[in-house]
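Write out this protein's structure.
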Amino acid sequence: MNQDFRRPNPEKEMPMPAALSLALTGDGTAFERFTRLSEQERRDFVGGARGLTTGYEMRQYVRAFVRGEQIL
């Protein structure tokens, strides 16, 4: 029984909030742009959404991302 008991690196493995995932998948342009980001840019983008508390705020965050506005 060979199991790996290493702890995950929280900086590397940052799960995406469900509301952000929904907002991205609901906007094809946003999703496409997100997939072109580097790993670090994705972590920064996801981290920037962590303080948002409503679906409206999340959608606004994604819209700003699509428009290329400064969001971080």
